[in-house]
Amino acid sequence: MTGVGEPGEPGGERLARAFLTRVLEPGDEIGGAWVRERGAEEVVRRLCGGGEALPGATGQRWTGLLARAARAEPERDLAAAREAGVRFLCPGDVEWPGPLDDLGDARPLGLWVRGRPSLRMWALRSVALVGARACTEYGAHMAATLAAGLAERGWVVVSGGAYGVDGAAHRGALAAGGATVAVLACGVDRPYPRGHTELINRIADQGLVVGELPPGDHPTPSRFILRNRVIAALTGGTVVVEAAHRSGSLVTARAAQRLGRHTMGVPGPATSGLSAGVHELLRGEAVLVTDAAEVVELVGGIGELAPERRGPVLPRDLLEPDARRVLAALPGRRAAAVDEIAREGGTTKDDAIARLYELRALGYVERHGDDWKLTRQAMVSLRVGRGPC
After folding, report:
1. Which of 43, 110, 159, 385 is spaced 20 to 30 A from 188 at the CA atom?
2. In angstroms, what CA-CA distances link 89 with 155, 232, 289?
3. Does the pLDDT at position 264 exceed 80?
4. 233 Cβ partners below 8 Å, 6+ apart?
5. Residue 296 CA to chain centroid, in angstroms?
6. What per-residue confidence (pLDDT) applies to 218?
7. CA angle 354-358-360, nearest 5°?
8. SS3 at position 279
9. Among 137-151, 158-172, 323-337, where is mean pLDDT lowest?
């Protein structure tokens, strides 16, 4: 590599980190420790010098890294990025999201970013929505609805740009005119999956597309898994919408738990294999959520509470407690004397009479001589759980 420069030279650290994104795999903790202990520029010098292996690297692995280093062209990668409207962020940059530092030595060496907004600012108020690629209609509906609700509340929706739940989440946020970030397992100038090229380009126009790999690099199964730690670290919480027992989205949720982030799950049918992984999470430390308000209550600030969940308010719910006790004291299928009603209602005869006249005015009871009986309307409403109209 040319142009790395001496330590402290302008662009030296950035160029070295761009070099290393071509050589080290995402999440390489041994490589991350080298960078932390020696600095990116010194690691690059050792790789370019072809000398003794750095600590922790076997001879075979070091040989592989040297082969990769021989082909790395960071100046070319940075030029290709600029041409594609992509910037390269490094730890310490103003735009670098601080929460990523929680990953320790597995922290990205740098991030390639498409889009105009500030990633650091967006990460401050963001939630990850992840789930099955082969999701059900229910999963797609819940992902889109949650994303739209979060976007309407000013939250950034982060996902992986994949088919299924990811795509539904991105579309839901965009449809609501909100903010969304796609974290890819390949070069950000190379949308993947190909079927989401239009969607990912739209996200880049209206939001952000982020990745650890340099321009043109391709995804691999391991890179998808390692990408999930970035989604978990970048956000304040992760919601799993649908996931089977071996779903990659569970990797995101477990990474979020290890990082001390909120982990949430959307319940599904007990008979659905695509909800089995979510239900397993919910049996552990994950919190059950059903809408955006419940997600925000968990990840948001003080006072961002979900509305209280209650059944419909029935007319009898508005009665005074004494009147409700008298109403409950009336037999279901016959008339009763005032003495019996007072005894069953735990009150005096005079109070029972007063309450019965009040209930008659409201349509609950009727008088039969000296006795009292529930009206037909009240009988029907009590049977079906509705008060009289």
Report:
1. 43
2. 23, 19, 34
3. yes
4. 99, 100, 102, 103, 255, 259, 261
5. 10
6. 93
7. 115
8. helix
9. 323-337
